[in-house]
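Teaching soon. Invent one.


***
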Amino acid sequence: MTSPSQFPRSEPSRPTDPGDRPARLTVGVVGAGRVGPALAASLQLAGHRPVAVSGVSDASVRRAATLLPDVPLVPPAEVLARADLVLLTVPDDVLPTLVEGFAEAGVVRPGQLVVHTSGRYGARVLDPLLRAGALPLALHPAMTFTGTAVDVQRLAGCSFGVTAPEELRLAAEALVIEMGGEPEWIDEEKRPLYHAALALGANHLVTLVAQSMELLRDAGVSAPDRMLGPLLGAALDNALRSGDAALTGPVARGDAGTVAAHVSELRKHAPQTVAGYLAMARATADRALAHGLLKPELAEDLLGVLATGAEETR
């Protein structure tokens, strides 16, 4: 097996023909969800060789067949027996139990690279395997996955939250670069905060956009996606460029009457969205006030509307 310290540092580019260079590591995937097959396919483009994948559901089997054709589907313990580099791509709550099970079964080899992709955990969750001689790495791609081939393309330029023992830092960063990503070092104790930040920005965004599209359909808009696309694209770009200075809309302006009308309409047509609207409006008002965008004299009426709305929602 190639020593991790021998991985070359290079720019995030890939060979035009993986056959031009010999495979360096055999790669196995435990958990053929949306993430694992895409990462293994990306590593294959970098010259490594996927040799085994495990998956239970029909969807997992289809993903593995699509992204890793001709790679055999085997039990998890067999994945570890065949691979130099093992990707543990399972849900966060499953990971500690899975690791403990592998440690008790004695299926890890000394010098075997074991990578998990959980955003919540750092490398410490792999300590039971470290004691068995494994080389533990936490590589979390800051990307939403579809479970299709487009995910492999999206990894180009994708940031990865990287946590590993100091002596494995270069190996972890090199693997990320080989997948076309950009390594971002996250301290072990900061992993939960890091993951919460990503969930707040990305996961909740999907909920907000889906609710917005439903409301637009109810309002008679035939193509809500087409209407929202330019608006949300501009809002995201402005927010990334300018932060709170990009705040706009009735809350940031202090238009209490408009916000009251919003709450009234949402109660009639989509009562399940009221609590979320009020919570986000309050958070927006607080930030607008703190950054001098919302005038204090207008904030009183606005905050009163939000407080009344919250009481009526209870």
In short: Residues 1-22 have pLDDT under 50 and may be disordered. Strands lie at 26-30, 49-54, 85-88, 113-116, 135-141, 159-163, 182-185. DSSP finds 13 helices and seven strands in the chain. The longest strand covers residues 135-141.
